[in-house]
Amino acid sequence: MRPEGNLAYQNFWEVCPQPKEHELRLILPATDAAVRRGLQTIKHGLEPNGLAADEVASLEIVLAEILNNIVEHAYADDPEGLIDIRLSQADDGLHCLISDKGNMMPGGEPPLGLQANLNCDIADLPEGGFGWFLIRELAHELQYAHIDGENKLSFRMAIGQKR
Amino acid sequence: MQALRRKKVRHMKLTHQDFDDVRVVCVGENRIDAACAIQFKDEMRALSDSGPARILLDLQNVEFLDSSGLGAVVAALKAVRHGQRLELAALHPTVQRVFHLTRMDTVFTIHTSVATAVEGIANAS
Q1: Predicted local confidence at residue B122, as pLDDT
Q2: Cβ contacts of A130 on chain B, cutoff 8 Å
Q3: What ipTM was reported for this prediction?
């Protein structure tokens, strides 16, 4: 952005990152109720970005599934866990980074989230396993890493794009 | 010390109205999500157990449904008696989206509104 500029100034930014205009950061306790409130806060916080209703819906679906999974699985044994959510609007969409210090994903990989087979009797319909399918349908460039005891999940939502 | 579990028993606001051969169950909450999916499932089961052959779930107040909520609606479908039907009405776009993406819209009979669903039987009879 600034090809020139003095180093001292740059150091200041590195040491003290300032909230940028198009960034939103939220740290939530890992509970169902906090996730509910957090989703409302995020929707409210993104209002200035002028997202369309269906864009907000996609984001809420993906975030709800990821956050619910962290509450239920990563922090299954830890009611004190915290979830760190960072959202940053860029020209190609909303970049999301979600971190927690809970259990690693099983096998160190996020689930594939395959489409459930619904060609079966009603009695055999699946009641779960939709979460990762929805995440993978709606999120792009999903990446997961477990670094220094921390789960980091990053992805891009194709919303609020500038052409 | 055993940590207090965070799953609180949350009462789910379900109201119902019985017509000739249909029970319309209206969800009073604006979300069916991980925080209330189990209560929803249990209360729906009780309402279908005591209900007529057709149950219509009115989702007009439900603005958001996550995969836990979807699982609970599927569980409600699986819990109906032999010969009993569970149908859905008045899905918000976000809720419709979740049903469509997961193709659950091919499993359920979905009506645009309670009026059209109930008018349907009125006209047929």
Answers
A1: 53
A2: 67, 70-71, 98, 102
A3: 0.85
**A138 Cβ contact list (under 8 Å, min separation 6):** A58, A61, A62, A157, B101
Residue B8 placed within a domain = no
Report CB contact under 8 Å: A123, B102. Answer: no
Domain coordinates in residue numbering, chain A:
21-157
- The domain that contains B34 carries what CATH number? 3.30.750.24
Tell me the shortest Cα–Cα distance from A3 to chain B, in angstroms. 43
Residues of chain A with pLDDT under 50: 1-18
* Contact at CB, A57 and B33, closer than 8 angstroms: no
To the nearest 10°, report the CA torsion of B31, B35, B36, B39: 180
Element (H, E) at B87: strand B85-89
Among A31, A65, A127, beta carbon nearest to B66: A65
> What pLDDT sits at residue B36?
92
Say if A114 is an interface residue toward chain B (CB within 8 Å): no
Residue B30 lies in a domain: yes
Q: Count how many domains chain B has.
A: 1
Residue type, A55: E
- The top-level CATH class assigned to A21-157 is alpha beta
